[in-house]
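Hello again,

I reread your note about wanting to compare the complex against the isolated chains. To keep things tidy I'm splitting this into two emails, and this first one only covers the full assembly. Below are the input lines as submitted, including protein chains and any nucleic acid or small-molecule components. They are followed by the predicted structure of everything together. The single-chain runs will come separately.
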Amino acid sequence: MPLFKNIRDGLRNFFRREEESRELDDELRGYLEASVREKIRSGRTSEAALREARRELGSAEAAKEHIRAAGWEHLLESVWQDLRYAARALRRSPGFSAVAILTLALGIGANTAIFSVVSAVLLRPLPYPHPERLVFVRGVSPFRNEPHMRAHMEPADWLSQNRSFERIAIYVSGEVNLAGADHPERVKAVEVSDGFFPAIGIAPLGRAFLPEESIAGRDQVAILSSELCSRFGAPQDVIGRTVTVNAKPLTVIGVMPDGFRFPGRTQIWLPLPLPWSPDKDGVVTTAAIYSTIVARLRPGVGLSQAQDEVITAAAQPPGNLQDARASVHVTRIDAALLSSFRPVLMLLLGAVALVLLIACADVANLLLTRAVLRQKEIALRAALGAGRARLIRQNLTESILLAVLAAAAGLFLAEWSLRAFRILIPANMVLVGQIQLDGRVLAFTLGISLASGILFGLFPAMHSFRLDLNQSLKEAGTGLSADRGLLGRARSVLAISEVALALTLLVGSGLVLKSFSRLSAVNPGFHIERVLTSRISLGEGLYRQPEKRAQFYAEALRHTAALPGVRDASFASDLPLSGAVSAAFQFDVKEKNPARATGDAQLALYNAVSPDYFRVMGIPMLAGRAFTEGDRSGAPKVVVVSESLAKAYWPGENPLGKHVNVSSSLPNPEWSEVVGVAGDTRHFSPAAEPSEELYAPLQQEPPLGAYLIVRSAGDPATIAGALREAIAAVDSNEPVSELLTMEQRLSTSISPQRFRTILLSIFAALALLLSAAGIFGVISYWATQRTREIGIRMALGAKRSDVLRLVLGQGMRLTAIGVALGLAAAFAFSRFIASLLFGLGPDDPLTFAGVTLILAGVSAFACWIPAHRAAKVDPIVALRHD
Amino acid sequence: MSPNEKELVPGTLDMLILKTLTLEPMHGYGITVRIEQISKGVFCVNPGSLFPALRRLVRAGLLHEEWRATENNRRAKYYGLTAAGRRRLKDDRRDWSRQIAAIDRILAAS
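Full-complex prediction:
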């Protein structure tokens, strides 16, 4: 067992040094004696023999050191020695150590915090078997040119003949009413085809859906998430029991394992009735037009191969293709789920990397200054026989020790800032509980701290490498000649790169900050203040007939309007900033504009609203009239269109009196007259373009669920409770959900932008501060080095202002070079964040100019302090200065 | 380093030590003397290389070590071959012969 013996012997020597040392002494003495005896025997005198033998053996200590070096424990021991020495050195200059550790801790802490988010969001593999083989099959809709998962064919049609996929499943997401123990509740539901669970590769406790359960009549089954199940009891008790979903009794056949919520945050899975069609009145009521195909690739099948096959299949029965231009995309689901977060997280990671680089440059500068002060000590060590390699190792040990201490402090900073992250982070990005300082994050922190320790340690190490022993010992401590040539240049290069890096980051964050302020200033087209919203969903049982629903809405509106503090109230089937996937409706136009290509699908957002909707939301009527109480069932059908829709379909014409057919799937068109034009709204987010919208009277088209929108006299949050009671007074079985003010909805809607803006601003401020500290350090040192020179100049008649100009000029020269480099870098870098900007280009000249001015100002101030100090110097004192 | 030191062929020290110890366990000085004698003074092993090599071989399990009385009744550390050491020596010798033969052939070829 050589390995075992090696380790055992090494450990024994390491821990029992004295014994080991004595043994070595014995052995070497024995060798010496034998050697001397031999030499005497061959005729030398005893002194000559001893001298010769000693010379052969060399210094006893050196020989021992040499022998020890053959074992691995020797390295450990000398590292330990270096560490102790480094710790002593750091303790001796506590001020330096504190500044260096704090500087680095800021950089390392920021990196650790951001990496823990990256680790939780981007690096966590999906918890499904072989996630790399799971794909979304998406069609591209012509509407708004966004890929939004619209299937153009029946999966069943090509399921049988495909060669690329092991499993194919289709699902439709929405919400259902779940009758609970005490009050009804709105839960996230998904209708899935029978291949869904096998495709994902996760089986429920109990069983998955059977193929025949997609047939109407056999579909009275449900699968619950473990979180939803826990409200009813343990899984084994709940399976087989009945739950009431949308007033229908369903048998629970399975419960998903803990944490399985795919897609999104699904709580209940229901069988998808097949053949599926978007017009079908399914269990899931919202946004039924959107279906998603999820599939599992066969092993070894590539994405492009699968895509080719799908496109071929999609084109085969031409009748199935609703839009000839539609093409199909096959994307990995992990990439698809993360695609919106990756650019932001990469940007933040890049930003903190820059901060860390600046911190490293700062510390390298500090170390360089200290290395000059410690020149004598280093020269002494070299003179006593420390090899250059050993000196460099000692230097690096010190800087790595610094970095590791900083990493420990940085971990505290990271943990502390993660608390803020957990509040700031957009809710859809990651489950907050998953962001933590786990093993991977700790490994990352250790890695970057070691890397930065080596990075900033190399400068002073290089310094000791170039040390001229005699020169240093003679000049010990003055450091007068030390800052010439390479070293002085190294210092300048450090300062310049700090400025350049900081400017790059400042430009990036300046652009993002300005985008955010533009975004906040956007008029969304509707009121934000004092608007309370909530969603009410009617179970299907009682409200099968549209008349019943119309009756409920009228009654509920009457109760709500009577509440104290309520100014106006309205229902609407859709709500701006609701975050729901709003349905794009296909409609027909009677008076077609010949200029508009006939092939274009005519899609618009559809919203059934009460007469007061436009007043409650503060959407102006630009022409015609809003709806009235007279626009009820049986009255002539009317619609209101948004300005952008009117412009798109009837440019230059009066839209009033034109006709559209909203229910284009019916065989006989039912034409509705356009009676009004409403102002545009930014329906999806303030960052989105205004949408083309169609409004219909709620009483003519009563939906199965609607948003209740209330404009209050005072703080809208105070009437939330009363609102809930008012609805319960009409029908206590219908759940009220999403009780939110419009301000809260807006805040959620722009939370991704806010998240990155706040973080980037903090990092940029940090970079500015650190780089200013760097410039300050370099210029202070430069001025101190020239104290005598300054004294001579002043003695020869230079004025204070000349000295001020001299020092300031040196600093601003470095700054100017840094700014030039930084501007070039920022120009290249800002291109990558163009997609994150709003309302301005990546080379917005005002931002570039503004941040350059800020940086130059801060840097001038940082140089002014040492310049001022230098100018105050007494020439007599300065001349004596050595 | 003394100017007249007779350097070993690089990389052969381990093999020479192993060979020297095939007959009987020896102490450090004995090994030096034996190598010098057998090579008729061509090679001289410096203690500065000998002892690290011995420690390395002990660690690798090729040698065992033991404190014993010398012929002069002094205490000295004796090194002897282990079974693994013997196997290693056999391998080293075979490799060595092959290399020497190859080098000879190359030198003879031109």
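For quick reference: The CA atoms of residues 66 and 79 of chain B lie 7 Å apart.

B.
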